[in-house]
Amino acid sequence: MLVLALDTTTRVCSVALLESEENTLLAEYTQNIKKTHSQRLLPLIDDILEDTSTDIGALGAIAVAAGPGSFTGLRIGVSTARGLAQGLNIPAVGVSTLEALAGNLATLPGELICPILDARRDQVYAALYRCCSKQEELRNDIINIDSDSEGASLTHSLSENEKDSKTEAPSDNEKRSNADEGAPYNNVKGSGIENTGGVVGETYLKNLLEPVAISITELLAEIQLYSGRVFFPGDGIFKYAPFLHEQLKSRYGEVPPAFALNRASAVARCALRRLNLAEAPAEEFSPYHLQPYYLRLPEAEQRKQQQCREQEVQ
Q: What whole-number distance in Å separates Cα of residue 287 and Cα of residue 203?
């Protein structure tokens, strides 16, 4: 099956074409320039189909990073994915932007992966995962990651002696979090984004902190509850790297630029896992169910609610 994946949740515009049977990335085009997604997305889709000699009718599914991220970018990506999927009568799979970013670094056993996106207003969109290598039956709060992902070249694991010996933190099982309650990580009805589960291979991501809009200092407090080095994919690192490096010191892990930015190939692989684990994909992945995933209301909606509250007071 051919999967066309889109990511327009940040300034980066990325499109990828993945062949599912052999897990082969046929092509991936990524731009990190100031042109709007409405200018770039459709031409990139045309280019990737033409360059790979792929007829659009041969596509088996459309995958899209459905959020969190830029409100305008989310709407452009999701509406494009819905339109293509409806026209072709194929599944539309919404994927968490943060899960896809974390998936780029899923070959770092034992380490923490904390994707962060700049949410402005002194906040970031973030989640926290532990990369695990032991095969086990996953609870609802665990997201599985293919061990042969594009991040394989980053394979690295610190010995216990290399980890910060001064860090005294409870184990992951001792930490009570939203994930321990078994809550799905989106909590947005109709978003089309769900947690994945089941028995997987050697590498998976254990969800420690649900996706949230949070200040960087609050996020740091959450991170300090766990031991191990911390890697930060996502555009938020370009703004907060000095602060995080200063606070975490030797626990701060450098992320290569190629893995810090959004990549549609990671979105495609997340979508494939959801399709493979779904019992009723025809209904679950209907394009009519696909919606943007917002962790925070758009500013226009916030202003409207504020005006309503002020009117009620008057």
A: 30
Residues 60 and 3 sit within 8 Å (Cβ to Cβ): yes
Structure-token pair, residue 182? 């078994």
CA dihedral sign, ordered 106, 59, 81, 46: positive
Strand, helix or coil at 307? helix
d(CA 74, CA 29): 18
Report the C-alpha dihedral over residues 278, 178, 169, 144, rounded to 10 degrees: 10
Q: Is 106 helix (H, G, I), strand (E, B) or coil?
A: coil
- DSSP 3-state assignment of 57? helix
Burial 69-106, CB ≥16 within 10 A → b, else e? bbbebbbbbbebbbebbeebebbbbbbbbbbbbbbbbb
pLDDT: is 161 or 207 the higher one?
Answer: 207
- Residue 17 and residue 26 in contact, taking contact as beta carbons nearer than 8 Å: yes
Residues 123-176 have pLDDT tens digits of 999 999 998 875 543 433 344 444 343 333 333 333 333 334 334 444 444 443
Residue 287, CA atoms < 13 Å, CB-side half-sphere: 20
Count the alpha carbons within 13 Å of 100 in the hemisphere toward its beta carbon: 34
pTM over 0.90: no
What is the structure's pLDDT at 132? 86
d(C-alpha 233, C-alpha 235), whole Å: 7
- The structural domains of the chain, ordered by start, are 2-97+262-302 (3.30.420.40), 98-254 (no CATH)
Q: What is the mean pLDDT of residues 51-61?
A: 97
3-state secondary structure 234-277: CCCHHHHHHHHHHHHHHHEECCCHHHHCCCHHHHHHHHHHHHHH
